């Protein structure tokens, strides 16, 4: 019986690990007043790259308010902006893939996700971060990109 009770907890922890980095809300601004439920807003979140010490990415995105937003039933817009910056000495916890998803967050109750992908530009010794949203069938071409240069004396370890 205890094993069955632990299955949901194990599943939740696996989902948490699959999501990559954890977002920290830095702040928000209201964009539209809603009489019932929270206002529509733009949220700014920060997350530290889980495999790269010294790099933090800031993502701003729209968050739908109102009753549907409060209940988690609203579909947030597919638009986001990203800025990743060196905030300390850059070091690597493990070798990086040439292209890896480092963050993912649900934007709707069904299948729409905001994703942040890290790519390694070995020729220029830089980390490139791309944000976009996708759907099960058809994603959005709206995207944003940023890059963090790594000192030439620091080799980016790639798998």
TrEMBL record:
Keywords: Signal. It comes from Variovorax humicola. Residues 1-23 form the signal peptide. Pfam families: CreA. This is CreA family protein. It comes from the Bacteria. The keyword Signal applies.
